[in-house]
Design goal:
Number of domains: 2
Oligomer: single chain
Helix content: 25-40%
Radius of gyration: 18 Å
Order of helices and strands: EEEEEHHH
Number of helices: 3
Structural class: alpha+beta
Strand content: 15-25%
Length: 104
């Protein structure tokens, strides 16, 4: 069993608004008191608050899925080891986990 070095999941997305009216998405994690992780800002266009678009939401969803994706990669590596599988997908999974854990 691995030790978490990041905020445990699940991570959630919250729709928020800045004081100037611009919208942003906040990604929050779990933990003893909850945890703010990241904001994705829509910003301003021509001095007016911008709306959150599909790209903003897609990025927020990917970030929020990170703990689950990391666990899937770890499980895949374990399954590959149990079945003595080798290949590019397994190497990629190992490299991705190492990157996520700061070992790349």
């Amino acid at each position: 069993m691995s030790t978490h070095t990041h905020t445990p999941g699940p991570w959630t997305i919250e729709n928020c608004r800045n004081e100037d009216g611009s919208k942003f998405l906040s990604i929050n994690g779990q933990g003893p008191w909850g945890s703010w992780l990241a904001d994705i800002q829509a910003g301003n266009i021509n001095g007016k608050p911008a709306d959150i678009g599909p790209l903003h939401l897609a990025n927020a969803r990917l970030i929020a899925a990170a703990p689950d994706l990391l666990q899937v990669a770890r499980d895949f590596i374990l399954l590959a080891a149990l079945h003595d599988w080798e290949g590019a997908a397994i190497d990629f999974a190992k490299a991705t986990v190492a990157k996520a854990e700061g070992n790349a």
